[in-house]
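Exercise 7.
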Amino acid sequence: MAYSAGIATEIIVTGSPGSTRGELRVGNLRFPCALGRTGVSTEKREGDGSTPLGTFPLRELRYRHDRVPSLATGLPLVPISPTDGWCDAPDDPAYNRPVHLPYPASAETMWREDHLYDLVVVLGHNDSPVVPYAGSAVFFHLAREEKGELQPTEGCIALRLEDMLSVLALCGTETRIRIEKA
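Solution. The predicted structure, written as tokens, is:
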């Protein structure tokens, strides 16, 4: 694991096709993480529930400023508002981009009651250029737990709050996340 001025240059996530749980490593830290409901895949498609394999930059950290007052991270910070959305309509010109709600096409609400997006890192997946149907809203966010077990995502990577805070403290604009088969 390489570091630049105390910032990790790479986060490694390992998972298996069909498995909804994986491991996230950064430096000497290891955390269990939730993956997509269908595991990992080399061929991410809109709505398939898979977490895409590959290496992606961390674009920015969006956060609920009313729930997370201060953060230690080198990532660009973007406060989330109740009108923030993310377009997941493959035929829309704003596909896989932030939008203002209400939006005329299908869009995910970023301001959520369930805490999953209190901290959400936008990954550079399918954004340069955006390819219709190649997957949208692939994020690194907070995990849902039931009876102590991490629950699957819709294609994202998710951590418990305390684990996420530890990882974010090591992230900067040069950090990449590599998702690979276990």
